[in-house]
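ok trying this again, last paste got cut off
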Amino acid sequence: MTSPVDPIGCSGFSRRAFFRFAAGASALASLPILTEAHLALAQRPQFADPNKGIHIDANENPLGPSEAARQAIANIIPRGGRYLFDIQEDLAATFAGIEGLNPESVMPFPGSSQPLHFTVLAFTGKNKPLVIADPGYEAPIWAAKVSGTPVIKVPLADPKGAATHDIGAMLAASSTPGVLYICNPNNPTGTTTSRADIEYAVANAPRGAILLIDEAYIHLSDATPSLDFVKEGKDVIVLRTFSKLYGMAGIRMGLAIARPDLLEKIGSLGGLNALPITAVAAAKASLVDKDLVPTRRKIIGDIRADTLAWLKADGYACTPSVSNCFMLDVRRPGKEVLAAMAAKEIFIGRIWPAWPTQVRITVGTQNEMLAFRKAFTEVMAASTAGLVPPLLPRKLAEHPFTHLS
């Protein structure tokens, strides 16, 4: 086993600077746009070689980009000296054509984190709070902190069952919400909110409120998309990313879909720059591959179902996920299990304060999930015997990114 290292981090300037920026309220205005990668990194226990082991803690897709996307990247590399705004426009037009949208309602971004962040900054304020499910994806909360926007967390409905957004409670939480954030399927639970509930939210949201519907994981499920609300001109912004099913987390490509006037407002905060042409080319190749979504949905779904069945047979409760992640109740402080698994170089996570005995598990490859099973069995046996080691080299609860409640 490797020895613990400096708790601040060991992978150079970017990581150290990232943690330093988040250390105090005075730096909030300078915070970077937080992504799933940042939030997973912040709760990952530190060891001498952070690149070793199996990583099922950041909702990444180990399959990576499709073959067509890889070939598209290779083909466009010789043109890397150009900005090529035209292929950016072509990507928006391609997506719009597939979905029956006006191309002016589609704006490409480097991932979906930027438009998420910009939407919160553009439409919330001190008297227009952010309303968000709990547990839910934390990045909108950090965007709200930048502008001093109040955050209202609404517990998920039926937490021991369907674990869906409690739309009625979210609508009742504020008479003047700026943004109501709905991640569907939800991160971290992998559960979906019904189409009827989302329709109710669109129809009954207070005047001027924006429904930000994050569909990062929509391709992994059979959930009905929300793009038709954009076609109808509603106060809805839908986010899509190529980081999950399409396997492009490290390549960075996403889309914001909304009325042109809403896109103009979020784009004015930084959405009009030229994007990496490799990412644009890979994204278009992924979109036009008709077999890619159903094929990968089945691969990931089969591994998820097999893993959930194994855990259930062993007596563990999990959320009924239809995504590439799920919450697992370990029936003891989740941070202890996270640390013990990391000691075996199986990185899981993270912990949400609302559910302290649950850990999020990302669905990896079949071999990765078999390795997870072996390590998890050993860790839980040791935990029952009182042999789980303390969290090293520092307590996760002391890290600034865990204080989101």
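PB: full thing came through this time. The chain has a mean pLDDT of 87.
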